[in-house]
Write a structure and sequence with these properties.
With about 120 residues, the chain is α+β, with helices and mostly antiparallel strands. It is about 45% helix and about 15% strand. It has helices at about 1-25, 40-50, 80-85, 100-105, 105-110; strands spanning about 30-35, 55-60, 65-70. A 3-stranded antiparallel beta sheet has the order 1-3-2, covered by helices on one side.
């Protein structure tokens, strides 16, 4: 009896470990051009987009004007991620930022032109 319980527990742990490894391999990445230009933009984008369903990692590169996002394709899509970024007031590829959200951005972001179209 004790052996069968141990065997069941061992198999369950093995299955859970394999499932976790398979899930981590199923992540995809997307790079989105953005209008972010300052450290406050980085903070706003990274601290909000990470909470979108399925998003696992967000990194803003100001020098290249891009946002790199690792996400679970079973839970979200690149279009949904772009929409989340535009709802913060920033351009996401060719999608313009929400005007109301842009008006709520910190003054430094508005003065630097974070809402301008990405060239």
């Amino acid at each position: 009896m004790r052996t069968s319980i141990s065997l069941i527990v061992l198999l369950a742990l093995l299955f859970c470990g394999t499932t976790a490894a398979a899930q981590s391999k199923s992540l995809e990445s997307v790079t989105i051009r953005t209008s972010a230009v300052c450290d406050m933009c980085v903070t706003t984008i990274e601290s909000n987009v990470i909470y979108e369903k399925g998003v696992k990692k967000v990194k803003v590169d100001l020098d290249k004007s891009i946002i790199a996002v690792d996400y679970d394709p079973r839970k979200t899509t690149p279009d949904a991620i772009r929409t989340a970024i535009t709802k913060l007031g920033y351009y996401a590829d060719d999608l313009p930022g929400d005007p109301k959200a842009f008006a709520d951005l910190p003054a430094c972001c508005q003065k630097e032109g974070c809402g301008k179209k990405v060239e």
